[in-house]
Amino acid sequence: MSIETVKAYNVTGEPGIIFFKEGNVWAEGEKVPFQVYIPQGKTLAGVKAEQPDGTEITCTMDNTDGYFIMPASDVYVSASFSETNPGATAHISALYDADQYRVFSQTNPYYQRIDADGFDVPAGTALYISIVDDYGEPFWVGIKIGDSFNAYEAPQDEDTGEYVFNSSVVASGDVVIRAASTKDGVQIQ
Asked: Tell me: the pLDDT tens digits for 114-168?
């Protein structure tokens, strides 16, 4: 048996805004996941990852979740924001079989079940969405924000074996969430 050591580098982020999901020390070439906290009344305008010499690192973003590939140096991550249009609202709704799925906003003051009727929030509001399949089966989630649509396969929890989908979404436009057993079933026009 042999042991190989690799040089590790530090990642830091704007305090209270950038959160690293799996720690702050990474080796070159590793995928570094992070999440951006968006202050109330703001929308995310951009995310920047930089090496100490100012060289920018490409970040891939999906709503408030992002990642970059670790270079051979330390990295600092920051976010920029723009003001939301005062008084503008976004409508949040969800389409699903209520016997099989539970769809909730876990964000105060909007902590509630999300259904087809939905509710309005100030535009730019960040919501933490949680979806559970009560039958314990694999499922997919489609999320449409304004004109942008993404489909996600719900991961299986390693400890409980349940299929659960948790994600932050920023209501920069109306949000429609759909849960179904197949990827085709979550398409939203």
From this structure: 999 999 998 888 889 999 999 999 999 999 998 889 999 999 988 888 999 998 8
Question: What sign does the CA torsion over 8, 70, 66, 181 have?
Answer: negative
Give CA–CA dist 27/70, Å, rounded. 7
Helix (H, G, I), strand (E, B) or coil at 184: helix
Handedness of CA 113, 147, 140, 43 (dihedral sign): negative
**Token pair in block for residue 177:** 């969430």
At 83-102, the pLDDT tens digits run: 877 788 999 999 999 999 99
Is residue 93 within 8 A of residue 176, CB to CB? The reply is: yes
Give the C-alpha separation, 135 to 114, whole Å. 19
Q: CA dist 143 to 58, 131, 139, Å?
A: 24, 12, 13
DSSP-derived secondary structure for 92-116: EEEE--TTTEEEEE-STT--EE--S
Q: How far apart are the first and last CA of the chain?
A: 55
Residues 6+ apart with CB under 8 A from 185: 140, 178
CA distance 183 to 128: 22
Report the alpha-carbon distance of residue 99 to residue 20 in Å, rounded.
36
